[in-house]
Structure to design on (438 residues):
């Protein structure tokens, strides 16, 4: 499995354990998020909505590219990958 | 020590009594909307958070310092079309806690707020297909529980109406006779009421007062019939209604019409009734002496059972009376828009 890093925004760190950078081990982008939720299960509802999709105003970037759909979450990871969960620009 | 929780669109703040003044603390949950406060059956503090980006959740704390999110909180089924947008109220009776939410629903916990299950008879009520959101969403936001017979409860839902259960939530009836609807729809005779807030007399749970979109009402028969009580008010519209239980005084903050939603003439005034709502008068003295065109939202006024009345405005200002509404003081802090004010420790 690849050694990767997930960066999360301040609001999620606030309800997580304070860390904004969390190391994970996974084969895919979706697997990396599952690894994050295994450590911090409270974050699942903040990243995915009831439809099982990434929330409308949340973006998941993998090495600088947005992965929105479920297919996007199947992308494989390489060692050193950086995944960024972002508060999408949506006003307010 | 008297502790007041203040939930804003950008975090929670706390006021703690210190001699004649108040210590100020916060923000916690910086950046999150803090929508309501409550207690678990064992006495832990609970609060609701929400975010346009990251959704809603319940958190718990034994000391108001260290918080832990409830992982198995209220949730609509995955794959459905309902979304949990906000947790608007948390109420507890005995070993059971209830949370009322937007998108309108009621959830209960029987394990000290650790896990939550839907109250199906309410959530799948036969009238649900006709429920329509108001400006503030489709929100179940106020639950009254009869302290003597906790199987009797009243649930307020915007913009649907007040529901009553007599059997602990297994069945729910709409109880809105006598209340005017904002926009009557003959095809949905039972629903379309827009309740903003409810408060009851703990010694006489049949007596309930109601700030509605269309005015202020009361019932003396548990909701079977309602009557208008607006004599002396400068406007019918408003959001919160609270009661100082020792004296029985009621408090509202009237706003000019549902279209304008501002204090009439910029005169921000709490109104008080000391005769169960028969008549209303400006509550004491000490209100802002300069124009203030801000309102108070439905969960942003609270009493402590000892004559304390606390409110937070949409401008982020805090106002309080410690003598049942005879004298009012504004605190110096200016916070984000205030959603919720609660007495956490009396």
């Amino acid at each position: 499995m690849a050694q990767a890093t997930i960066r999360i925004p301040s609001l999620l760190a606030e309800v997580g354990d304070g860390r904004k950078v969390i190391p994970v081990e996974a084969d895919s982008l979706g697997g990396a998020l599952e690894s994050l939720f295994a450590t911090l299960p409270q974050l699942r509802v903040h990243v995915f909505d009831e439809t099982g999709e990434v929330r409308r105003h949340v973006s998941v970037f993998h090495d600088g590219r947005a992965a929105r759909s479920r297919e996007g979450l199947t992308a494989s990871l390489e060692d050193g990958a950086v995944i960024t969960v972002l508060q999408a620009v949506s006003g307010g | 020590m008297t502790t007041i929780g203040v939930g804003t669109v950008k975090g929670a703040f706390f006021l703690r009594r210190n001699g004649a003044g108040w210590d100020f603390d916060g923000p916690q949950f910086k950046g999150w909307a803090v929508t309501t406060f409550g207690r678990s059956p064992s006495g832990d503090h609970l609060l609701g958070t929400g975010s346009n980006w990251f959704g809603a959740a319940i958190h718990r704390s034994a000391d108001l310092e260290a918080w832990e999110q409830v992982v198995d909180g209220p949730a609509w089924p995955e794959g459905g079309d309902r979304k949990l947008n906000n947790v608007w109220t948390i109420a507890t009776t005995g070993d059971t806690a209830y949370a009322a939410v937007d998108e309108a629903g009621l959830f209960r916990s029987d394990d000290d707020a650790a896990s939550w299950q839907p109250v199906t008879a309410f959530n799948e009520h036969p009238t649900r297909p006709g429920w329509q959101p108001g400006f503030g969403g489709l929100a179940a936001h106020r639950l009254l529980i009869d302290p003597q017979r906790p199987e009797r409860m009243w649930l307020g839902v915007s913009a649907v109406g007040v529901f009553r259960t007599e059997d602990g939530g297994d069945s729910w009836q709409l109880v809105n006779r006598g209340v005017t609807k904002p926009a009557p729809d003959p095809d949905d005779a039972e629903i379309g009421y827009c309740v903003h807030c409810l408060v009851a007399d703990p010694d006489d749970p049949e007596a309930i007062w109601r700030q509605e979109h269309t005015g202020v009402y009361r019932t003396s028969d548990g909701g079977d019939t309602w009557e208008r009580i607006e004599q002396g008010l400068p406007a019918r519209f408003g959001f919160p209604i609270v009661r100082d239980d020792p004296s029985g005084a009621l408090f509202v903050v009237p706003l000019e019409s549902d279209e304008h939603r501002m204090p009439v003439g910029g005169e921000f005034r709490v109104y008080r009734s000391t005769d169960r709502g028969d008549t209303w008068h400006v509550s004491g003295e000490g209100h802002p002496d300069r124009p203030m065109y801000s309102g108070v939202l439905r969960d942003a006024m609270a009493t402590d059972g000892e004559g304390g009345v606390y409110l937070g405005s949409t401008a982020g200002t805090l106002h309080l009376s410690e003598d049942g509404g005879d004298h009012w003081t504004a605190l110096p802090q200016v916070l984000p828009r205030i959603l919720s004010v609660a007495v956490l420790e009396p």
